Amino acid sequence: MWVEEYRDRNNKKKYRFYEKYKDPYTNKWRRVSIVLNKNTKQTQKEAILQLTEKIKIKKSVRPSEHKDITFKELVEKWFDFYKNTSGSKESWHNKIQHFINKLFKEVDGDTLARKVDRKDRH
């Protein structure tokens, strides 16, 4: 655990406590943090408890609905999300849809997304 001191927007001194953990699903290092008003032994112990609880929650939450999603479903969900959030024009969406159609002529869309690699071409 490490601590960084900073000033909030009201110019009050605050302390951000950090802890790192390894995400078991991605095998990458992640960090969690909490903010407390003091940096004493008592608040450090409280920070450790809160950070440990946050890490426990983060490690246990895994969207099970996406475990067995196919590559085609994943691309379709991404494209729907992209269309709704990108702010790009309809003509650009049509180009992307064309590329997606070409992609699925080369790659089997029924392959599980987590199993896709460079060898999945027909």
Care to describe what's here?
The protein is of the alpha+beta class and 122 residues long. It has 2 domains: 2-62, Roll (Nuclear Transport Factor 2, Chain: A), CATH 3.10.450; 66-115. It has helices at residues 41-60, 71-85, 90-106; strands spanning 2-7, 13-22, 29-36. A 3-stranded antiparallel β-sheet has the order 1-2-3, with helices on one face. Helix 2 runs antiparallel to helix 3 (90-106). It is elongated. It starts with a strand and ends in a 16-residue tail after the last helix. The mean pLDDT is 88.
Give the end-to-end Cα distance, rounded to a whole number of Å.
49 Å
Estimate percent helicity.
40-55%
Derived from helix and strand composition plus strand pairing, the structural class reads alpha+beta
- Under CATH at level 1, the class of the largest domain stands as Alpha Beta
Spatial strand arrangement across the major sheet: 1-2-3
CATH architecture field of the largest domain: Roll
Please name the CATH topology of the largest domain: Nuclear Transport Factor 2, Chain: A
Cα shape: elongated
Q: Report the total helices.
A: 3
Please report which band the strand proportion falls in: under 5%, 5-15%, 15-25%, 25-35%, 35-45% or over 45%. Answer: 15-25%
Order of SSEs, N→C? EEEHHH
The biggest beta sheet reads: 3 strands, antiparallel
| Low-confidence runs | none
Number of domains: 2
Radius of gyration: 22 Å
Chain-averaged pLDDT: 88
Report the oligomer: single chain
**Number of DSSP-assigned strands:** 3
